[in-house]
Amino acid sequence: MTGQSKYPEEFRRRAAALVFDSGRTIRDVGRELGVNHETLRNWVDRMRQDRDGGRPNDLAVDERAELVRLRRQVAQLELEKEILKKLPSSSHARRSGEPDRRLPVHRCGEDHLPGPSALPAPRRRPQRLLRQAADARTDGVASTSGRDSPAPCSA
Fold first, then answer.
1. How many CA atoms lie within 13 A of 101 on its CB side?
2. How does pLDDT run across 97-154, given as a tens digit for each residue?
3. Handedness of CA 55, 60, 61, 65 (dihedral sign)
4. How are the residues of the chain apportioned to helix, strand and coil, as percentages rounded to the nearest 5?
5. How far apart (Å, rounded) are the C-alpha atoms in residues 5 and 32?
6. CA 73 to CA 80: how far, in whole Å?
């Protein structure tokens, strides 16, 4: 501090001690003594620094350990984020273990839908019932329009 202080050193020490000992806020003590609360805060910080023997912003041992742990975690997460950015988007389903549920698209004769054999079998349906339904359809009257028969496909 340069220059002459408005308050004597003894007054500053006692004012800072009053904040520590009384448990009141700096603003309340400053108002009672007629001192700006920021000025009193500087005196309290200086007294705390003298008592602790270190800088006012020193961290406790457990706080420092937590800070180190959190910094490592942030570094790990940033690394994972960079790796995920570089992966192609189509690999997401394969990584999650989900089966590929896409149906193959067949464009041969786009106006004609493929027969039941071209589609995957529905889940939890017995194959026997599907065969019976197919047999019943083929045992019936044959269509003369030709719309029920699949269109031949040339590759």
1. 5
2. 565 566 666 566 556 665 666 666 555 556 677 777 778 777 665 544 445 555 555 5
3. negative
4. 55, 0, 45
5. 20
6. 11
Tokens of 137: 């359809």
Better-predicted residue by pLDDT, 87 or 25: 25
Inter-residue contact 109 to 146 (CB < 8 Å): no
- Summarize pLDDT for 6-48 with one digit per residue, the tens: 889 999 999 999 998 888 899 999 999 999 999 999 999 888 8
Which of 44-50's residues contact partners 24+ apart within 8 Å by CB, and which partners?
44/16, 44/19, 44/20, 46/16, 47/13, 47/16, 47/17, 47/20
Q: 109 CB contacts (<8 Å, ≥6 apart)?
A: 150, 151, 153
Residue 26's contacts (CB-CB under 8 Å, 6 or more residues apart) are 19, 37, 40, 41, 44
Max CA separation in the chain (angstroms): 116
pTM score of the predicted model: 0.35
Residue 67 has pLDDT above 70, yes or no: yes
